Amino acid sequence: MNKNDTVIETRELTCRFGNFTAVDKLNLQVQRGSIYGFIGSNGSGKSTTIRMLCGLLRPTSGQAFVLGYDTAADAERIKQRIGYMSQRFSLYYDLTCVENLSFYAGLYGLSGQIKKRRIEEIFSRMQLEEKRQVLAGSMSGGQRQRLALGCAILHRPELLILDEPTSAVDPTSRRMFWNLLAELTQEHTTILVTTHFMDEAEHCDAVGFLKAGRMLAGGSPQELKKGLPAQLITLDYGTTKEAQQALLSSGMSYLDAYVFGQKFHVLVVPECVFPSALCYMPAEITMEDVFIYYDKQQGGKDI
Ligand SMILES: Nc1ncnc2c1ncn2[C@@H]1O[C@H](COP(=O)(O)OP(=O)(O)O)[C@@H](O)[C@H]1O
Ligand SMILES: [Mg+2]
Question: Atom 4 in ligand 1: which residue has the minimum CA distance?
Fold first, then answer.
């Protein structure tokens, strides 16, 4: 693989807190210009991995290379070249928008006309022109989120690392935010983003599922859906409760069964033989099914 095309590479990256292993021999590769979705339930080790990638936390063992630098040796250089948005947005709520941007511009060493121009660019790009003199603390979740993204890209980083950027915002803001991310990748920015939303995972070029610090599966959404060692059916009954009862009384063995919106999804092995009494229809596997499947796996395996 061409080294210039790999923006993030980890080798057996591990982080322990005392006896507890938060990140366990993680092997990760993120290609330039792509959006990589880091998926996993709470406590699976996403933020800990990100802290190591940003050079904020030293790995217990293994290595992480970001933009060609070893995070353990070149943390300062990495911090200057990446944009990072933490789960808490890291804004000063008692400062105005322009003061927040000005503060971050200073951290990145921007000054004079360049600083002024970049800040104006951010206001227009983030559609926050009207909010220049408004305190960050008095804005909506979506506006804060865009301001935080603006702060993270002031210095035009090649790599943007976003930790649950959309957890606290409404669906309209989520959509707007993902449009902004798509614009950034068109300008060749690489993005690593963690999310709980599987519709967002669909927008990623590659996705990695983390469970208890281990990578359970990775690939494009298409590959992951195709590669799931299971087939999906939806049960055709009046209510999900009836569907569940029908499944239980059919005696059919299955991998997993769960309410999915208005429907009742059942994952079965590919060679499953269906009882004739069961009213079912084959269904297309979504990223949500993939997530549920991997999240219920015991332990992890290397990919
Ligand atoms: N500084 C720390 N000391 C001890 N345990 C920690 C520390 N940071 C994170 N952890 C633990 O590591 C695990 C992974 O946490 P985290 O990376 O924040 O998960 P995620 O971001 O996927 O929700 C959790 O069980 C968390 O409690
Ligand atoms: Mg986290």
Answer: 17
0.85 cut: is pTM over it? yes
Q: How much is the pLDDT for 108? A: 92
Q: Are strands 214-219 and 206-211 parallel, antiparallel or unpaired?
A: antiparallel
Pocket of ligand 1 (CB under 6 A): 17, 22, 40, 42-48
**22: CA distance to ligand 1 center in Å?**
6
Q: Measured between alpha carbons, how far is 211 from 222 in angstroms, rounded to an integer?
A: 20
Position 90 scores a pLDDT of 85
**Degrees to nearest 5, angle at CA 38 with 187 and 80:** 50
Mean pLDDT of 128-135: 96
Per-residue pLDDT, averaged over 278-298, amounts to: 88
Domains of the chain are: 3-92+148-223 (3.40.50.300), 229-284 (3.30.70)
Burial of 17 (0-12, 13-18, 19+ CB in 10 A): exposed
Q: Report the distance separating Cα 185 and Cα 190, nearest Å.
A: 6
pLDDT tens digits, one per residue of 248-273: 999 999 988 999 888 899 999 989 99
For the four alpha carbons of 126, 152, 95 and 88, in that order, the dihedral sign comes to positive
pLDDT of 298 higher than 90: no
Question: What string of H, E and C letters represents the secondary structure of 262-282?
Answer: CEEEEEECCCCCCCCCCCEEE
List, in order, residues 6 or more apart from 217 with CB less than 8 Å away: 208, 209, 224, 227, 290, 294, 303
Averaged pLDDT, 43-61: 95
Specify whether the CB–CB gap between 39 and 209 falls below 8 A.
yes
Q: Which one-letter DSSP state was computed for residue 86?
A: -
Which residue, among 53, 42, 38, has the nearest Cα to 209 in the 3D structure? 38
Nearest CA to ligand 1 atom 3: 17
For the stretch 58-74, pLDDT in tens is 999 999 999 999 999 99
